[in-house]
Amino acid sequence: MNAHATPIHDPTALHAWVVALAHELGFALVGVTAPAESSRAAALRAWLDAGKHGEMTWMAETVEERCDPRRLLPSVASIICVADRYHDGSRDCEQIVQEPSEARGRIARYARSKDYHNLVRDRIHKLRHAMQKRFPDASFRLTGDIQPLMERDVHQAAFNGQIGKNTLMLVPGEGSWFVLGELHTSLVITPSTRPPAWNRDDPCGSCTRCIDACSTGAITPFSVDASKCIAYLTIEQRGTIGPEFFGAMNGWIFGCDDCQTVCPHCQPKKRRAVDERMGSVAARYEERLNSVPLLELLGWSEEDRARLIMSSALKRATLAMMKRNAVVLLAEHAAKHATTREAIEARLRSLQLDSTEDEVVREQCAIAIAWLASQRA
Ligand code: SF4
Ligand code: SF4
C-alpha cells in the first residue's frame, strides 16, 4: 500500500483504502462509523445512577464524553474501529487450578500475552502515520480502553460485531475474543454496512448461558453490574473484597472469562470455512502466563511483580491488589481442600499480623479468616 499516492477525495474509495491498510497492519476487524450520540446513553446514565460502576468514579465524571465521541475530537467526521483476535476459543486452564498443594490463580485470557494496549496502539499509530502522510491537514485522535468512550457501542455501529447479553462485543459465529481500538479523524469516510449474514438485531436470541454461568450474579440481559463482576473486583476495586463473594471467585486472580467461555459464539470451531484473518490468533498474542501460584504470590516483592508481569496488562493491578485477590482465592481453596486448610490459615494469620504489609491485604486476611471460621461452623 503506497501511502504517498495521490490523495483520495472519494469517501468510498477512502473507506476501501483504509480498510485494506488496517488489514495489512494485521487487524482482524476493521469498520468505519460516523460519530453520533450513543444509542445507549440513557442506559449508561441509569447504570451510573444505580451505582453499578462501583468505585470507578471516573466513569461518572466523564459521562458526557462517553456518550458522544464528538467531545473527544470536535472535528471528528469518521471513527475507524479496529480489533485484534487474542484467543481462538480453545479450552485451557479451567483445569489448571486446584491441585491442593499448589493452588494457582487464573488470569483472564486477554491478559496472558504482552499488554494488548501496546499491541493495538502501536499499529493504530502506524495507520495514523500513513493517513497523515496522505492527508497532512486532517486531524486524528487515537482511543482505546483507557479513554472515555463507549467503545463496544462504537464498534457495533461500525459493524465490527454485536453486543451480547454479557455486554461484550461479539462477532456472530466468531466470539468475543477481540481487543478493540479506534482512530478518530476529521476525514469523511463512507461508513461500513451491516454484514448480510447478521440476521438478528442481537446475537443472543433466547440464549441465557452467560447469565446462568456468572457465579456472582452480575449479569442481567445487556447489562453487567460491575460492582459484582469478578473482573472489576480483581482489577478495578481498590478496597477489600467482601465475604459475599467468597466461594464465587472461581479461581480468577485477574479478570474472568466465564461469560465468554460458555457463549456459543465463542466455542472453538470445528473448523468449517473460516475467515483466516478473523479466525486465527497472531503470534503477538502468544500466551506467556496463564496463572500464578497463590502462596508464592503472597511473598512477592515489587521487583518480583515487575519481573513477572510489568509488560502485560496485569500491571493494572497493584501488588497489594494481587495479594488481596490471592488471599480470597486461598480461603476458597482451604474451604474446599481440608488438607491445606491449616497451612493456609497459618499463612493468612502471619500476613495479617505483618505490620510491613499493605493495610488492605491485612484487612482482607481478617475477612478471609472470619469467612473460613463461618464455613466451619
Ligand atoms: S466477567 Fe465473570 S463475573 Fe463478570 S459478568 Fe462475566 S461471568 Fe460474571
Ligand atoms: S452466552 Fe448466549 S446470551 Fe450470553 S452473549 Fe453469548 S449468545 Fe448472548
Protein described:
With 377 residues, the protein is α+β, with helices and mostly antiparallel strands. Helices cover 38% and strands 11% of the residues. It has helices spanning 11-24, 41-49, 57-61, 63-67, 116-134, 151-157, 209-213, 230-235, 258-261, 276-279, 294-298, 302-309, 319-336, 338-352, 359-376, and strands spanning 29-33, 78-85, 104-107, 140-143, 162-163, 169-170, 178-185, 219-220, 223-224, 252-254, 291-293. It has one domain (11-292). Helix 13 runs antiparallel to helix 14 (338-352) and helix 14 (338-352) runs antiparallel to helix 15. Mean pLDDT is 90; it is low at 1-5. The longest helix has 19 residues, at 116-134. The strands form 4 sheets. Strands 1-2-7-4 form a 4-stranded antiparallel sheet, sandwiched between helices. A hairpin with a 2-residue loop joins strand 8 (219-220) and strand 9 (223-224). Bound molecules: iron/sulfur cluster (SF4) (2 copies). One iron/sulfur cluster binds next to helix 8 and helix 9.
Strand percent estimate: 5-15%
Number of strands: 11
By helix and strand content, what is the structural category?
alpha+beta
Number of helices: 15
Strand order of the largest sheet: 1-2-7-4
Helix content: 25-40%
Mean pLDDT across residues? 90
Domains counted in the coordinates: how many?
1
| Helix-strand pattern | HEHHHEEHEHEEEHEEHEHHEHHHHH
Bound molecules: iron/sulfur cluster
Distance between the termini: 69 Å
